TrEMBL record:
InterPro entries: ATP_synth_F0_asu (IPR000568), ATP_synth_F0_asu_AS (IPR023011), ATP_synth_F0_asu_bact/mt (IPR045083), F0_ATP_A_sf (IPR035908). It catalyses: H(+)(in) = H(+)(out). PANTHER family: ATP SYNTHASE SUBUNIT A. This is ATP synthase F(0) complex subunit a.
Length: 79
């Protein structure tokens, strides 16, 4: 139990950040692909990509805060 909680937190943090990066990769690929065929839609997806990047940074900050908070609580229980 001593190592399972921090390990589970690390897996959760990694999964959340990976999901965000995959979504950004998917939308950026769509933006590049659509640029040659439909430039107006490509600009719209670029705007969505920029907003998603800002959201991803905010989520990363919140995830790091929650990770440190829960890790310190778990370690405090064991001391």
């Amino acid at each position: 139990i001593l190592l399972i909680r921090p390990l589970a937190l690390g897996v959760r943090l990694t999964a959340n950040l990976t999901a965000g990066h995959l979504l950004i990769q998917l939308i950026s690929t769509a933006t590049i692909t659509l640029f040659t065929t439909i430039p107006v839609v490509s600009l719209l997806t670029l705007l969505i990509l920029l907003l998603l990047t800002i959201l991803e940074v905010a989520v990363a900050i919140i995830q790091a805060y929650v990770f440190v908070l829960l890790l310190s609580l778990y370690l405090q229980e064991n001391i």
